[in-house]
Specification:
The protein is α/β, with parallel strands linked by helices. It has one domain: Rossmann fold. The protein is built from 14 helices and nine strands. A nine-stranded mixed β-sheet has the order 1-2-4-3-5-6-7-8-9, sandwiched between helices. It is globular. The N and C termini lie far apart (57 Å). The relative contact order is 0.13.
Length: 366
Amino acid sequence: MARLRDCLPRLMVMIRSLLFWSLVYCYCGLCASVYLLKLLWSIGKGPTQTFRRVAREHPPACLNDPSLGTHCYVRIKDSGLRFHYVAAGERGKPLMLLLHGFPEFWYSWRHQLREFKSEYRVVALDLRGYGETDAPIHRENYKLDCLITDIKDILDSLGYSKCVLIGHDWGGMIAWLIAICYPEMVMKLIVINFPHPNVFTEYILRHPAQLFKSSYYYFFQIPWFPEFMFSINDFKALKHLFTSHSTGIGRKGCRLTAEDLEAYIYVFSQPGALNGPINHYRNIFSCLPLKHHMVITPTLLLWGEKDAFMEAEMAEGTKIYVKNYFRLTILSEASHGLQQEQPDIVNKLIWTFLKEETRRKDWLFL
């Protein structure tokens, strides 16, 4: 009996692991089936249109707007990868490092590059595999450990030991991990529409609605097919993601201009440009939940209540993982692309957080 009691915890872990991976693979198969039906339907309606792509050889002028900053590159010694970033503000000022989400790139921070350059050296990075940053071929090169090390090495290469770190969506996931693993590098942490990683993994297993909203995480586990589905009908799915009523930018705020939208399509329509971004997701289930998970950095979490991909309850559950000042602000009429959709409000909230004393926990609903 005593021996059985000793084995029981290990057995429960194995059962939970088996159930978890069964869920992952079953849901992957379900998502693949749904998207395959969509593909067949599209081919049936118009095969020529389905496989049509417009050649985009030259970037839109907005990507070279000098008011946004200077295009720079840095090669990391250990990995050998060259990273692209846009920098605004004088060298020597405190560093503000901006990490974008999916499917985005440095340009999603255009409003913040202009806003914070007066007091910060603002750097909007193209993450590993995105935009003009190098994109390793193999999915193993996109493990969370690699992504965390990238940010540490970039800080070193830029000549900084610490920064104000801001992340949105997937970039928010990376920002949480940096604050957990290298708290000495983060003066203040600001995350937009992504909960603490442990909250995400725990919540998704208990709430079917969130499982459905995160179905693309499972779909992305399939090789090459997600990249192909994004590209059909001249990247119609990508355009829909940015412009539809449910997921698009601009429900109650700034909408993407035609040139802004073309900038996104231009970047992700380049050969192989979707492989790296989707590879980021292909290692996530083997890396979560985290063994070390407490955040000791002053933290601001901004959340759009109408987010089509993340339920607001996860934002409220994040506070238990922050053992320092924590402020949560939920914007009632905002959606997922908060920093692009309501830049004036977001920038004001960030300025307030940067300038205030950070001694207490606070929650605010706007």
